[in-house]
Amino acid sequence: MKITAGRKRQIANLAAALADIAPATTPGSGFCVEKVAREMGLKRYWKNQRNKRTTIAHLLEQVFRYHPRKPKKRSLSSRSSAEASCGRPARARP
Question: pTM score, two decimals?
Fold first, then answer.
């Protein structure tokens, strides 16, 4: 996917929102964006920048550029597993 100026702004806003709620890195085995990227096979797009917002924005930009459908697939699979853990049945997809 081509990253236009508008998309770049949207990615920066998304990265800022994500940076407010999740750490970019963490010592040990705690939750962080870097660990999620590693688990999804996207470690090659992780590159430390000057702060965590730009680091997360770089990761998202690379993922949207080279794997535009991967974030959608991941969020749908996370939702299904979250619904299952809450005891609600997952909706059937056509």
Answer: 0.71
For residue 45, give the DSSP letter.
Answer: G
CA distance 87 to 27: 33
Contacts of residue 47, Cβ cutoff 8 Å, sequence gap at least 6: 55, 58, 59
Is residue 24 classed exposed, middle or buried when 0-12, 13-18 and 19+ CB atoms within 10 A define those classes?
Answer: buried
Phi-psi region of 76 (alpha: psi -120 to 50; beta: other; left: phi over 0): alpha
pLDDT in tens, 2-14: 889 999 999 999 9
pLDDT digits (tens, 9 = 90+) for 18-67: 999 999 888 888 889 999 889 888 899 999 888 999 999 999 999 999 98
CA angle 29, 32, 37 (to 5 degrees): 100
The Cα 53–Cα 88 span in angstroms is: 34
